Amino acid sequence: GNTSMIKLPKVSVVIVNWNGRRYITRCLESVLNSNYPKDKLEVIVVDNASTDGSADIIAEKFPRVILIRNSQNLGFCRANNIGIKHSTGDVIVLLNNDTFVDSNWLIEIVKTIKKPHVGIVGCKLLYPNGKTIQTCGCREIFLGYWEHIAAGLKIRDFDLKTEIEVDYASGAAIAIRREVFEKIGLLDPRFWAYVEEVDFCYRARKAGYRTVVAPKAIVYHYGSASWRSFPLRKMYLEYR
Q: Does the pLDDT value for residue 66 go beyond 80?
């Protein structure tokens, strides 16, 4: 499509970093090199008291990035909320630090978020090999159980032509119109980490907003990288 026809909104990308040294450089380089006007793109990293030097790397290598350093680890939700409060964009994208993005991902998000009643746009998450789909959003099968659409399928076997409506989109890369936050508030910090996006998308739907996944907004996601050493903690946080 011809993107020059769309009046492009200002986009704020909020990335929570906690000991993301292995990933953060590639993540930020890909975001800053997105095919989107530089004056319309704000990148905010909220560092949750990392101990691996990653915050210093960000400060040194990426002067364009707004870096907020928390003095302690406030968890994913509260850190995201701090980033959202500092942001100035019309569209706010919450992005995990263990991702890297396709150059057109923001253009594709913006095209989709402009459609009627769309408040939240999810991305097509691929594994880093770029061949296998991690998720194209989720649908509830029955209470408390969700199905990840197209999870594990090869890209060639699942070619989405148009956006699809979902119950929730993965919080690893999720775009939200500012007015949605103004209407329903921020992420619920009681969740600490995991499932906060489920809650948020359901609250948004109650307020009349649709959550859709943009099929051409492609993000590569390593997935749960920082939780490998805490599988029980992860299970607890997901299930409670």
A: yes
Residue 227 binned pLDDT confidence (cut-offs 50, 70, 90):
very low
DSSP the chain: --GGGS-PPPEEEEEEESS-TTTHHHHHHHHHTSSS-GGGEEEEEEE---SSSHHHHHHHH-TTSEEEE-SS--HHHHHHHHHHHH---SEEEEEETTEEE-TTHHHHHHHHHTSTTEEEEEEEEE-TTSSBEEES-EEEEETTEEEETTTT-BGGG----S-EE-SB--TTEEEEEHHHHHHH-S--GGG-SSSHHHHHHHHHHHTT-EEEEEEEEEEEE--SGGGTT-HHHHHHHHH-
pTM (predicted TM-score): 0.90
Instruction: Give the pLDDT of residue 46.
Output: 98
Query: What is the structure's pLDDT at 220?
Result: 96
